[in-house]
TrEMBL record:
Transmembrane keyword on record: no
Cofactor: a divalent metal cation; Mg(2+)
List of residues binding substrate: G95, T96, I97, M98, R117
Keyword Lipid metabolism recorded: no
InterPro entries per record: RraA/RraA-like, RraA/RraA-like_sf
Name recorded for this polypeptide: Putative 4-hydroxy-4-methyl-2-oxoglutarate aldolase
SUPFAM superfamilies: RraA-like (SSF89562)
Binding site for Mg(2+): D118
Gene3D superfamilies attached to this UniProt entry: Ribonuclease E inhibitor RraA/RraA-like
GO molecular function list: metal ion binding
Amino acid sequence: MSQDILRDFERVSPGLVRQAAAFQAAILADVAGRRGAMHGRIAPLRPRMKLAGPAFTVDVRPGDNLMIHAAIALAKPGDVLVIDGKGDQTAALMGTIMMTACKQLGIAGVVIDGAARDSLEIDEMDFPVFCVGTNPNGPTKNVAGRIGHPITCGGVTVHAGDLIVADADGVTVVERVRVESLLPLAHRKVADEAARIGQILEGNTAAPWLAKALQAAGVLKEGETL
């Protein structure tokens, strides 16, 4: 098979995917150093949509989906198709037929730096799709691309097998080798945020770090308060 198609790569394990799926994309981005979140142009077709799984990377020319068809044939159940469509919105790269095939094969969802179509039917299918937007135009199927290679999607480098977690806020990518070490930090952050929200609901709304931050920024002088 062509070197343009890499079909064998290590994926984040199903157990780690299940654990990570319990967290918001925002929590994982925070504990990863406030990085790994794709550009906000890539959003769910419907806010309720969410997904988690290992990335199955696809690189295509704008408006051409030949390699996405090949990726659907090669992906494993639980994979997330992550497609570098170069942000193009002049033609949809996927629609109902391809999404139905993905769902039937057990693919966990699709992330496209590009457009989709048939959004109402995809909504009825309840299949998670994250994309730049929609366009009625269909794609061409003529141009070679690459599968399984590192890509850039939404401004973030994605390697095949990396963890993808996406929800109403957008898409977060976590490098495969970092996932296990970040899960305890995510648990701790969730607990800390819940405690802080509890304090706020009891009337303690003042941010304890604010005065020092304002002093460090030169807004307040040493010893001053708001």
